[in-house]
Amino acid sequence: MPRAPVVARTLPSLRRTLESLRTRRATVALVPTMGALHDGHLALVHQAKRRASKVVVSIFVNPTQFAPHEDFGSYPRTWKADIAKLTQAQVDLVWNPDVGTMYPAGFATRILTEGPATAGLEDRFRPHFFGGVATVVGKLFTQCRPDVALFGQKDYQQLKVVTRMAADLDLGVKVIGVPIVRERDGLAMSSRNVYLSTAQRAVAPMLHRVMKEAAKRLRNGGNLETVMADGTKTIGDAGFALDYFEARHAETLAPIRSLKDGPVRLLVAAKIGTTRLIDNIGV
Question: E strands, the chain, where?
Fold first, then answer.
């Protein structure tokens, strides 16, 4: 029977356990999460085990990346199920701080993000988001001191922001993006998918189908403006409230005019009912 991971909830406990894990020159991989773990998270853990001898998973629902109208209070919290999954995955350590540990009284420091964080995608609709993400991830990196950290490509702009931050601040962490894990019908796995009604769940995979078709047309020489306009209409006709459907440079997230402008990523964010879904695909 697999052994349950050590759970640390205070900084002294975390430091003691990390010192023990790092004996014999062990390498450490970090998988940051907010819990409510699914197969997408476990794919990150699997990749982490391939890249390091010890694996740390953080579980912390970060309040600073939620706006007042967003779902911080109702965000799914499934601690027992999460620990069971991490036990089966043979994770070594779970870092589970509370809000007071991460943001103690008098906390007054934030990481200011620019570059990919100001690309006009998620930041246009969630202007608070990347400052909260960068600050908490920066803290997790300095607390856990991992050699590598793994993030899913579903949150593609976040991946680029964190990668840029780690490089700019010389944090000594190699950030690795792991491909999106999807349901059989193509819907990107997300902790928020549990909010979808049966009818909404049936429609949700349309986002991936539209992106796949758009990417195929672009690879076959389709006109960028026409392809993106057609995709936008299809998404709207399916009942989504679209925030954006964009073709961007895959590394800088800058707008492009054609496939000649560099490697291209299609990114989408849309609401169906009250649930906001995001997805992306390479061209």
Answer: 6-8, 28-33, 54-59, 93-95, 148-152, 174-178, 241-249, 264-272, 275-282
Using one digit for the tens of pLDDT, what is the confidence trace for 6-41? 999 999 999 999 999 988 789 999 999 999 999 999
Mark whether 41 is an active-site residue. Answer: yes
**CATH architecture of the domain with range 6-178:** 3-Layer(aba) Sandwich (3.40)
Residue 57 corresponds to which amino acid?
V
List of residues 6+ apart from 92 with CB closer than 8 A? 5, 6, 21, 54, 55, 56
Q: Which of 38, 41, 46, 128 is catalytic?
A: 41
CATH superfamily name and code, 191-282:
Pantoate-beta-alanine ligase, C-terminal domain (3.30.1300.10)
pLDDT value of position 72: 81
